[in-house]
Every structure is written in C-alpha cells, then in structure tokens.
Amino acid sequence: MLEVFHLSFMRNAFMAALLISILCPSIGIFLVLKRYAMVGDTLAHASFAGVAIGLVFGQSPIIYAFIFTSICAVLIEFLKNYYKQYSDLILPIILTLSVGVAITLTSSGKAHGNIESFLFGSILTVEKTDLYTILILSIVCVITLKILYEKLLYVTFDEEGAKIANINVKFINYIFAILVGASISVSIRIIGILVVSSMVAVPVATAIQLNKSFKKTFIYSIIFALVDIILGLILSYYLNCAPGGTIALTSVLVLIIIIISKTFIRN
C-alpha cells in the first residue's frame, strides 16, 4: 500500500485530501446545524458553472469556481430577504442559474479541458499549482473561521439572540456563505462536483451519531472526513476509477458502520 506514496500525483492528491478533510467538515458542521445541508449541494452545482467559465477563458478552474460559487452563496443569503415565506424556492433558483451557465458553456465547445475530471474527481490531474491554490484558500478559510468562531456559533444556535446581542448577523452570514463557496471550490478537483457535498455533510452526520459535545463532534467530523477521503483515494487508485465515487461510498459505509455499532451497543 505504501507504493502509492512513491507517485508524485498521489502525494499531491493526499496533501490536497488532508486540507479538504479539515476544511469541509469544519464548514459542514455549521451548515448541518443551521439546517442548510442542501445549500452545499446547490453550491456544488454552482462550482460546475465556475469551472466551465475558467475553462472557456483558459484560466484556473478552481479560482473561477471559487469566485462564481461565492457569488451564488452570497446571492442565496441576499434572496432570503425576498423569499422569507418561500425560502425553499431560493435553492432551485440558484441551481437553475448555475446549471444553465454550465450547460451553455460546456455544450458550446469553447470550454477547453477535461470537464469530467471536475465532475467525478481525479487523482491524476492534481498539479502543484492546484495544491497551492487549495492550500491558500484553506488557510484563509480556517483563519477566518477561527476569528468568527464564537459569533458564528452564536448565530448558528440562536440567530435572534445574536441580533439582540448586537452581533452583525447579516455580515456573519455573508462571510460564512463565502467560506462555504471556498470549501466547495477547493474540493472539486479531488472529490468531484457531483459528490462534493457528501464531504460537507456525511462526516458531520457520522460524528453526530456519537452524541458528543459540539467541540468533540467538530473534531470527530474531521477525523471521519480524513478516514473517508484517504480510504476513498486508495480504493480509487487500486480500482482504477474516479475518487469521487469511492470517497462518497466510503463515507456512507462508515456512517452505516457507526449506526450499526451504536445499535448493538445499546442492545
């Protein structure tokens, strides 16, 4: 198994995976607690449009995915003021916009590049430049999350109470929306657009089953994400398939194992 680490592309993939396994559940735990898990799936599709724009202009798809996904994330927050009673309409609107842009550009023939590597994930196409981009965005996100941690936690559990406490809830929500966009965009190269939301939600769902405190759930979600991604990458290498599928299946399998183990312990 150690032979995989002798390959440069696998080392790049594992380093990117390490960053993603920290970032995605760190953002995902707040999304899950805010009941916004489907926002991750919507923004994953938004990143598809960003990738398509990047490929059309011959620029870094990850950077353009980050820009477009962040814009869509902010737009979701903005539209909440206009659809207060019909908030379930917001995600289909953003989804329609994103998919429309993505399909239009990819079907026009102007998007030059391997779009499938972004849809399903790839361990072969992670280059040093991608790794540096993922590293920079991850560091910025983690630092921002650390700075806003207390206020974000307050807003997550009691938004009305946060307003009374003079916390700028709108500002926190907008910043968090950008962080979600960043975490999605840095993950698509490895995990793939179609299943990237699984790394945002499933490790958190697994950690929640342990019934621990918030901080312990936070830590366990990162541990589960790391296990899911590493095992998924190794399986994808030996099975010669896209890592997105194996990572998604591994994450669900780990969740099922925890649920079954929990059931047996109770009985």
UniProtKB/TrEMBL annotation:
Q: How does it sit in the membrane?
A: Multi-pass membrane protein
Transmembrane annotation, as ranges: 12-32, 39-57, 89-111, 131-149, 161-184, 190-210, 217-239, 245-265
Q: Name one Pfam family in it.
A: ABC-3
What CDD domains has UniProt attached to this entry? TM_ABC_iron-siderophores_like
InterPro entries to which the protein is assigned, alphabetical:
ABC_BtuC-like (IPR037294), ABC_TroCD (IPR001626)
Keyword annotations for this protein? Membrane, Transmembrane, Transmembrane helix, Transport
- One example of a Gene Ontology biological process annotation: transmembrane transport
GO cellular component labels: ATP-binding cassette (ABC) transporter complex
Q: What is its main location?
A: membrane
Coiled-coil residue windows: none
Q: Where's it found, cell-wise?
A: Cell membrane; Membrane
Q: Which family does it belong to?
A: Belongs to the ABC-3 integral membrane protein family.
* PANTHER family given in the database record: ABC-TRANSPORTER METAL-BINDING PROTEIN, METAL TRANSPORT SYSTEM MEMBRANE PROTEIN TM_0125-RELATED
Any idea what this protein is called? Answer: ABC-type transporter, integral membrane subunit
Q: Top-down, what is the taxonomic lineage of the species of origin? A: Bacteria, Bacillati, Bacillota, Clostridia, Eubacteriales
